[in-house]
Design a protein that fits this description.
This is YcjX family protein. InterPro entries: YcjX-like. The chain is an alpha/beta fold and 470 residues long. The protein has 16 helices and eleven strands. The protein has two domains: 276 residues, 3-Layer(aba) Sandwich (Rossmann fold), CATH 3.40.50.300; 120 residues, no CATH class. It has a seven-stranded mixed beta sheet, sandwiched between helices. Strands 8, 9, 10 and 11 form a four-stranded antiparallel beta sheet that branches. A hairpin with a 5-residue loop joins strand 9 and strand 10.
Length: 470
Amino acid sequence: MVIGTVIDEVARTVDSVGARVSSSLFDSTLRLGVTGLARSGKTVFITSLVAGLMNRERMVQLKAARSGRIEAAYLQPQPDDTVPRFEFERHLAALTGPEPHWPDSTRAISELRLSLKVRPAGFLSGLQGPHTLHLDIVDYPGEWLLDLALLDKSFAQWSAEVLERIGNRPEAARFLAALQAADPDARHEEPVAQDLAAAFTHYLTDARAAGFSDCTPGRFLLPGDLEGTPALTFAPLPPNAARRGTLGAELQRRYEAYKAKVVKPFFRDHFARIDRQVVLVDALSAIHNGPRAVEDMRQGLSDILAAFRPGRNDILTRLLRGKRVEKILFAATKADHLHHQQHPQLTAIIDALTRDARDRAQFVGAETAALSLASLRTTTEELRSHNGQDLPCVRGRLLNSGKSAAFYPGALPQDPTQLLAPARQGAESWLDGEFQAMAFAPAALSLKPGDGPPHIRLDRAAEFLIGDRL
């Protein structure tokens, strides 16, 4: 009886040790960052991606899903106890419920862990059992990412760049008037600083609504618990002496405090730990808003990639220089707002917009890609006759009225330089007509068991981002 008990305890110990060894050998973690500027669809992307990985019938371009090697996918508590959980269930209910609607947009950082149990492929399949990939998805506002560029800029540099950029923008009229009335070399008075900060925040809000991407500091738009603090009470100023006790000196001090106490902790605690990254881009809205918005987006995407430390994550790289981003995907969202005949043009545009930045990343060893996708398909396609020709249209439920309507946005050019060249040259409008953007509401869905939400090329995005780890 005692011998049997001892044998049982030894067996349990061996099983426990074996399970721990197996876990250490065959379990891995991949940290995926998801970002994009305002209204690019981050929340919908994450929700649809997770739903599609849990119900994989529509993920046919993800090889591990198509071959049936993903045995299970399940949600677990995320590893960072101080980061809010991404509200997957609430967002999925908003998109797929009886009265579908768009979920709330990203306003702060959040995280979700999805664990995938996968059978190995090839000759290893007969030698070992399934392994587990823990996919930690980190959602954060793109405006925060643009702030990383501030780390290399002094207050004077940042102020000069901002004031030069906004000088001719009507959205900046209120702030420029307040700036004209203020004296940076005068004694610091808090009401003046607050008025300048409020006027500058008003400009940033209007600029983002007008389609501009260069809206830094990002926390002015998404302040959270920092609202009203001195760290968010500053604004760009013209050159000044910045003598102690003056308005200029105080705003400069607060700018440096913003970098030290807001931007650096975000980089250290979250951004620097990312393995793979997807940057979502609402290129269609930028094209609709005109050449200035397109050029602004191009520069913003270049600044975003400059914030990454791209390269291969081999052992020496991690030891000597810290973790680096191995793969970066630039994805033009809302492809369902176009007939599929125009998807190649949209992909070519996002490829051209990010080409300079992607070339730099590839040079240092990172793998990059550009594609067009729709995280949640909201439209159907049809051809409608007009003046003797068939126009490729999409039909969807309009966001404002809820009515169904067919829509032809206009033709995207076959050659992306027809957009990028006038944008770089400072053109005020497109010479060959305008491109219209429409806001569609989510369509009512009837999903069969095993079906994730309908999408366009979300499975191809997943294959690029995580396929090699499956």
